[in-house]
Predict the 3D structure of the following.
Amino acid sequence: MNSPIKTPVKPLKNCGKCGLCLGACPVYKVLKEEQASPRARLQLIKAYENQTLESSVLLKELISKCLMCGSCAKACPSGINHYEKFMEMRENMVKDLGETPVIKSLIFLLARESRIRMGAGIARLGQKLTPAFLANKYCIGNIPLKQFSPLNPIPFRKTVATRIPAAGEKKGSLVYFTGCATNVLYEDTGISTIGVLTHLGYEVIIPKSQTCCGIPLMFHGAGDQAMENMMTNIAALGSYECDGIIVDCTTCGAALKDEYPALIEKQIKKSMANKDSLKSAPHPSHPSWDTLAARAQKIAEKTMDILSFIAAHKQDLVFDKTYPKLCNVAYHAPCHSRNSFNSLPLVQMLLKDLPFIEYTPTPDEAECCGGGGTFFYEHPKTAKKIMDKKKAHVKGVQAKYWLTDCPVCRINLAGNLDSTNALEDIRVFHPITLIHNALKKDVLKNKGHQ
Amino acid sequence: MTHDSAPHKIPDPAPGHTSEYLQGPIPDPIKGLLIDIVTKDRYLDRQEELACYAYDSFWEEAMPDAVIFPETAAEVSRILKIASLHKIPVTGRGAGTSLCSASVPLRHGIVLCFSKMDKIIEINTRDRYIIVEPGVINADVQKALAPFGFFYPPDPGSMNISTIGGNIAQNAGGPRCLKYGVTMDYVLGMEVVLATGEIVTFGSRNVKDVTGYKLSSLFCGSEGTLGLVTQAILKVVPRPETAKTLMVTFKDLDDTANAVSDIIGSGILPAAMELMDKFTLNAIEDSFGLGLDREAEGSLLIEIDGIKEACEREMAKIIQKLKDNNAVHIQESANDADRERLWTARRSAYGVFAKLAPDIVSEDVTVPVSKVPEMTRRIKRIAKSYGLTVGVLAHAGDGNMHPMIPADRSNTEEWARVEKAFDQIFEAAADLGGTLSGEHGIGQAKARYLPLVMNQDSINLMTRIKQAIDPDNILNPGKFV
């Protein structure tokens, strides 16, 4: 339900078990099993909290067989915030049972910027060294190794200045939160985001100390590490005067906009329960809780996803009239774009209005692709079932381009297309890349795409 | 998983039956036989998984001992043969959206979940039918028919997720059933597996069919107590050329209800006529900010459909009747987006109430249309006398009322008042020539009210039918029969 008025989140006991969330859940829709539904997860959490059900490997698996797309919370008539309940439960499960080695190392990597860089470096080396016959044979989750994008040769943020001046007259300044994916994997998105924003007359500021938003850590119950990343980012983003904070990934955006304030509020409630002073700080080197809350709120209010921003400024884009028209362009709306930013109608309008694109909507463009953070890795069979439905539709409209504004969706969409099959020779980009390419003059060198 | 305390006493099962049920977990040799039928993948019996099949949209909960996902009628037959032999209760389940605990395994045993039996077997718009498996979702039937310009009229509030099998078991209705009729009116034929494992079929692909008893009428609304549907032939109808929607407000709730019976009495049959009282309207406005009139004591959402010219003529007549009954604002939807906006308001009513309190008690007593004004007054009076808040919402055109009382079950004092209020609401409905349930069903909770609307001989007849078809009482035991 798309309510313009925010109603306060309701406690778990308000779940009336009506089942409307089943119809919104991408996992339930392909598996048709109640135990894979948001309603069941809430019931299991209730039973766990009432101590009628103990932690178990199976309970953890049932809780984690979820894309964390937030569609259930959006459909819930009772105002339950499934998302937060699931996150809390995931943390409890990890506390009770621990985490698998692969996920543990992911958390280890994402918790420190230096480790992300190191990890990417090793992976790059790995990609170069993997013999072709192995790459053809092996899969990560449901995606064949050979269909993974090559990593950026140098992390994106290292290749750009902290402040990039506006092209022409300066209208304002925007802080750009690049996220890990643009930094290590999809530099084309980063280049284009800067290109379009400067074209529109904005100075772009890229704080060098920013790090992983922490969402993957929260999903895997690593609350403390997520908190650390949040502190780093609040400090990094809050230290610049700006007119807005731009994200090119709406999952990172959801962290800045929704999760940081919620995480701090939860901590404050805990502190209040323990009668700690709000003037105290989480750590001697950090600001106090109430200062943090104010800063997080400011960041949340300023956070915008790049496509909504472009949609609001599309009249100022100047296109190269000689740019060839691109036909059969389909769009995939990432769950967080729909559920956290409500950007789908804006993006649809934007795509319709772009003069160089013939936008061909697929009937299920707003359905989840099954990527879901590490879901495609942890539940490859289910992810494949979800993806196969989407693939059939995009082939049905004979798409040549498939645009999406989430890097995990992009990995998953591109990874499941077999480029050796003519019908599946569909190129997957962030929409910003096509917009940037069609602009009248390039502000930055265009590195092209893979 | 706790077994929540029942709001009403569960009626005693037929004598001599319960004690004979197999108690506790399914013994390994029987489990082995069941797994042989469906393979391990479609057999669940670990506590964490069973807990997910202990509930539906009603408040009552009970744990099954096993959950099985059949994929063919033959599998269902083999499972039921084993269940009959060992006296294991079997409860059918689709998407688990029953509002009367129809899919809750009150006597434990096996839950047969049909959600994976979800194929559309044939669409034939020339002969106007569709053949489906029971797990097909109502909305997917609509989606499949849309390209042909056809639709399947029954539209329960849960249509985006509830299955045809469940719709048949509960004889589901919905707003547009005023004009088009309920599930039973659209079931041409079905394949059913009986408790003994026999696979029977009745009805046909023909709208006209008087070959023997019309058994599909008996199985529609039998709440899984007589047999389990494994295939259904449904009648489909062409989509009307136009649809128009009116949102009307009144200063007086009586005027609102009178307008409904006046319009129906004048010979016009709108597709839907939804009544909302002031409390409901304001609750919706609080959540959605649609610009509805907060001062209105009553409002109607009226939809008419059909051929364009006929719609226009009917609309003029309806507007006249509304004016005669002192309507304050009459607003016609200008386009589809506008129409959708008005229906969003109506469809969100349940959700809006769900936000008001942990539990929402929504029954569906039904009275003759001319008694809607009186029933509305009585509901308000009864709720007030017990110090409860009530929102009245009704598919008013067919007298199907939805009094909704927000409450908290953990507050035992308040819950006792809610129960007493509903006792009186059911009595009032019976008193006005109405009935207990228009579309939700009886299940376990309303069984004790049956004597209000049926004499003992009639109740005994239902028991005899049940005993004849399911002699061991293994199908959905603990419910109304």
